[in-house]
Design brief:
The protein is of the alpha/beta class. The protein has 2 domains: about 130 residues, no CATH class; about 160 residues, no CATH class. Helix content is about 15%, strand content about 20%. It has 8 helices and 11 strands. It has an 11-stranded mixed β-sheet with strand order 6-2-1-5-4-3-8-9-7-10-11. A hairpin with a 5-residue loop joins β4 and β5. It is globular and about 60 Å long. About 40% of the residues are buried.
């Protein structure tokens, strides 16, 4: 059973005496010590001043975090976004968190789950209340692993392999994608994740609108607005691989992973069998495909600038 929690600005919170930014809903049975941890993940930084009237351009923060604070085999899937004005006329946000245990993980991985229509709440106009029923994750997987969104954005789907080839467990290496408002980052994350075996997908953490790392959390793939403080900090990080979606891109190396991203998997074709990932042993869930071997040096990449477009 997966637990969920919703955090936003309200005249009255779910817990007695709470108002303003607070929890307005959660699943019955959610451990009390997990509630403040999820609330602490609800931060959101508007890209524009609220009065600018550009709320449609505000990025959405789709996240998958892991942390020892939640438990060794627990993940948090989140959607955090600007939410217009609250009851006082000030800027509001809506954070919807799903606490996922090992037994709830599905083959598609966290990005695939987040891409499913209706899985996350995008609005909240209800009175505070508890959810009586548990949250169930949809089951399924990517139908193909051809990186069509990367191809549309950069001209070469092989660029998705730049993320997948830099998965090295929890060794501190991060991949940073610099983007412009209006770019839909979750499909790009999903296509890169589709190149990985299912058990590795749940080891990869990401945030499609990264501004700061919450205390105690892990975040491997970070999407930062170009020119932001987070982007400037990423460029100073010697352990970060920076992929700039706002600048021209040199050709990507012709690797088996890049070829898979360009061509997809043909009917009956097995997973790549070239090498092995330096990650923990597979988790006990759906039967995993054979392991991939990914090796890459840390480097800065520049990507071709194209007009932002939607992929969903």
């Amino acid at each position: 059973m997966a637990y969920e929690l919703i955090y936003t600005s309200s005249e009255r919170g779910l817990r007695p005496g709470t108002s303003g930014f607070c929890t307005v809903a959660y699943t019955k049975g959610l451990p009390a010590q997990k509630i403040p941890l999820l609330e602490a993940l609800s931060g959101y930084r508007n890209a524009y001043a609220f009065q600018e009237g550009k709320s449609g351009q505000e990025p959405v923060s789709w996240c998958h975090y892991r942390s020892p604070l939640f438990g060794r085999e627990v993940s948090v899937l989140s959607r955090i976004s600007a939410a217009g004005a609250d009851h006082t006329g000030r800027s509001n946000k809506l954070a919807h968190h799903i606490l996922v245990g090992e037994s709830e993980r599905v083959a598609g991985g966290p990005a695939w789950v987040s891409l499913q229509p209706g899985f996350f709440r995008e609005t909240w106009n209800e009175e505070p209340h508890c959810f009586n029923e548990p949250k169930f994750l949809p089951s399924g997987d990517f139908g193909d692993c051809r990186a069509r969104c990367w191809e549309a954005l950069t001209g070469d789907g092989g660029h998705a392999a730049l993320l997948a080839e830099n998965v090295n467990g929890d060794d501190g290496r991060v991949v940073v994608l610099l983007f412009e408002p209006g770019m839909d980052m979750l499909p790009l994350i999903g296509e890169a994740m589709a190149l990985l075996p299912w058990h590795v997908r749940w080891r990869v953490t990401y945030n499609t609108y990264f501004t700061a790392l919450p205390a105690g959390m892990l975040c491997t793939w970070r999407c930062c607005l170009a020119g932001s403080d987070a982007a400037r900090e990423a460029r100073r990080n010697p352990r970060a691989m920076v992929i700039d979606l706002t600048s021209p891109l040199p050709p990507v190396e012709d690797t088996p992973m890049a070829a898979l991203a360009r061509e997809g998997r043909r009917n009956g074709q097995k997973e790549l069998q070239s090498v092995s990932l330096t990650l923990e042993e597979p988790m006990t869930a759906p039967p995993p495909p054979q392991r991939l071997s990914l090796r890459s040096e840390s480097r800065e990449i520049n990507m071709l600038t194209l007009k932002p477009r939607q992929y969903r």
